[in-house]
């Protein structure tokens, strides 16, 4: 293969990052050497055996015993992790030199990774990480929601400085016609724009204008459709990771 692919899973709480990390890793292990990195200080159980686990240094549970609330404990845990930043970066880069894939599972509260210096600095120091931004079908109700997901993936790319691919997770829960509807909205920006044009609300107008900008700035990246249960989309993700690595982060 000639190099290691680093895939970072981000998404809101409940979007299925941890299950997907475990299932995709299992799929890859059939042909490759895979390493797992857990960066979630609050997770109780993992479906994979982490090679690096930040909970060995700090956990949200321990910090809450000091009197912090859940959100404060998450932020404090990352403040403390910052003191060990060089150690974790060195450990991840060591794995990168020995394995074919390094899968990174990020905190349940996505904002912890996106807005704390630890996450941003880590991404700046890793060689060509591919970020997979997971969305739950539950949040996709209206045309404006698709605009939000595509735009947010772009903002993650901007924030972390790493190629970010939007992915619809848990597609095993969808009927075929539901999945087709999601595909249409995600993949055909003209169709989405057409639907937004007839939305008379301020929200619709804003989304229409944002989508117009998106057509100019959006890199032509495929949307992934994934399922930890059925392994749907795993081959697509593997192919995308390979293309991303071979082109040094340029998926155009």
From TrEMBL:
NCBIfam families: PRK13768.1-1. The lineage of its organism: Archaea, Methanobacteriati, Methanobacteriota, Thermococci, Thermococcales. It comes from Pyrococcus horikoshii (strain ATCC 700860 / DSM 12428 / JCM 9974 / NBRC 100139 / OT-3). This is GTPase. Keywords: GTP-binding, Hydrolase, Nucleotide-binding. Gene3D superfamilies: P-loop containing nucleotide triphosphate hydrolases (3.40.50.300). InterPro entries: Gpn, P-loop_NTPase. Belongs to the GPN-loop GTPase family. GO terms for molecular function: GTP binding; GTPase activity.
């Amino acid at each position: 293969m000639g190099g290691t692919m680093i895939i970072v899973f981000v998404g809101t709480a409940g979007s299925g990052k941890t299950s997907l990390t475990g299932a995709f890793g299992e799929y890859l292990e059939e042909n490759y050497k895979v390493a797992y990195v857990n960066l979630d200080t609050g997770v109780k159980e993992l479906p994979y055996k982490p090679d690096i686990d930040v909970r060995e240094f700090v956990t949200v549970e321990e910090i809450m015993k000091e009197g912090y609330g859940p959100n404060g404990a998450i932020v404090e845990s990352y403040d403390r992790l910052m003191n060990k930043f060089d150690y974790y970066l060195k450990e991840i880069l060591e794995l990168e030199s020995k394995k074919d894939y390094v899968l990174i599972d990020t905190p349940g509260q996505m904002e912890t990774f996106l807005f704390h210096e630890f996450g941003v600095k880590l991404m700046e120091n890793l060689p060509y990480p591919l970020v997979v931004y997971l969305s739950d079908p539950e949040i996709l109700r209206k045309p404006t929601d698709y605009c939000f997901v595509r735009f947010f993936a772009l903002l993650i790319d901007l924030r972390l400085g790493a190629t970010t691919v939007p992915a619809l997770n848990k597609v095993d829960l969808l009927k075929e016609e539901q999945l087709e509807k999601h595909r249409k909205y995600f993949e055909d920006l003209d169709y989405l724009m057409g639907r937004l044009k007839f939305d008379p609300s301020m929200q619709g107008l804003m989304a229409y204008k944002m989508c117009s900008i998106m057509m100019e700035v959006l890199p032509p990246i495929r949307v992934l459709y994934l399922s930890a249960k059925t392994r749907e989309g795993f081959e697509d993700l593997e192919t995308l990771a390979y293309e991303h690595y071979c082109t040094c982060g340029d998926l155009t």
